[in-house]
């Protein structure tokens, strides 16, 4: 940071990956070099599966090359077809995974206070062709898992959670990943826990894990037997090695993120027209994003004006999730994609700005960001 109200001398992005000390990674690289084992269920892959299960408190995990392939395979693994109820308020990969499986997405609106699929609106969207619900724990904020499960049970639907923002999140001590039939994680460079690119599917029984493992490896079950038309979605040894190292630092990193979120909340709380997600009771969060809602009428400036203003100081927030998935050309012709069907998602998508949050972001920079957001418009944060 240069000076208090000056331009930051390096770009500050919405996120930045945490990387462990290079010499620690080099130790792993040496082992990979010596063994010449680069992928296909190698030593580090096997170690990481065990270590992540332990850390997350889940029974079975299958590691993937990225979260998108994991989503595609999760749907395939449960033989999901026809129509699937999902949220428009997510990263495009959520709905693209349906499209890649030839499944029709049916968009349902979200709740204003959680940004997640609204359970009150799910039932009216169910048709005889509906086979599953694909909710997203957006920004790592847990969905109403009990109500969603109740609906799924009464209509005989599967539930696959897109849990890509939700590393290590628990509710009343229970890992959020243990709800639903499957949960999908992303370990992309922009995520709380990263393996460069990467992802995983959490399953609850051995047979399902085996099916998923076969699907991610071309359908092979042994050297000569291919039981299904699988794909290549395997995580390699370099990714797994970084994953093992990241686990050493993850608690510390989540704590740093929490402190940043607390400073943002404290500094921005008295400003009319600005709101943010509050932590729900009994939830352990991972603070993957800090979404700020900017009400143009009350705040006096629009979300886009604040976004542009921050850019002048080399600070690059992101408008996750604008545009809504339902507004992209592939999906906007669907009846459920109409803005009248999705008023809450439309409103939040126009108001949200995700401001920087990552472990190495200094608290001085967090305060600086708050000052740009507030002081420029004549509103004191002190
Ligand atoms: N479901 C959900 C709910 C998701 O959020 C995602 C991914 C997926 C599924 C799919 O999982 P993956 O297949 O990706 O594992 C980013 C990420 O590419 C994407 O992984 C993520 N969600 C999405 C929310 O954000 P972009 O296009 O906004 O990323 P990009 O490259 O503009 O990066 C954002 C900022 O992060 C950059 O301005 C700078 C910083 N950055 C980025 C990279 C890649 C770094 O500092 N280092 C880096 O290596 O999509």
SSE layout and pairing:
Elements: E1 12-13, H1 22-35, H2 43-56, E2 60-64, H3 67-77, E3 83-86, H4 93-100, E4 104-107, E5 130-134, H5 145-155, E6 158-162, E7 170-171, E8 174-175, E9 182-186, E10 199-203, H6 206-215, H7 237-268, E11 274-276, E12 283-284, E13 290-294, H8 296-299, H9 303-312, E14 315-316, H10 343-351, E15 352-355, H11 363-375
Parallel strand pairs: 1-14, 3-4, 3-5, 5-6, 6-9
Antiparallel strand pairs: 2-10, 7-8, 7-12, 9-10, 11-13, 13-15
The site of ligand T4K has 24 residues, from helix 3 and helix 4.
Question: How would you characterize this protein structure?
Answer:
By secondary structure, the chain is of the alpha/beta class. The protein folds into two domains: 12-16 and 250-317 and 356-375, Aspartate Aminotransferase, domain 1; 22-108 and 115-246, 3-Layer(aba) Sandwich (Aspartate Aminotransferase, domain 2), CATH 3.40.640.10. The protein has eleven helices and 15 strands. It has helices at 22-35, 43-56, 67-77, 93-100, 145-155, 206-215, 237-268, 296-299, 303-312, 343-351, 363-375, and strands at residues 12-13, 60-64, 83-86, 104-107, 130-134, 158-162, 170-171, 174-175, 182-186, 199-203, 274-276, 283-284, 290-294, 315-316, 352-355. It has a seven-stranded mixed β-sheet with strand order 2-10-9-6-5-3-4, sandwiched between helices. The chain has a three-stranded antiparallel β-sheet with strand order 8-7-12, with no helix packed on it. Helix 3 packs across helix 4 (93-100). The protein is globular and about 65 Å long. 44% of the residues are buried. The mean pLDDT is 96.
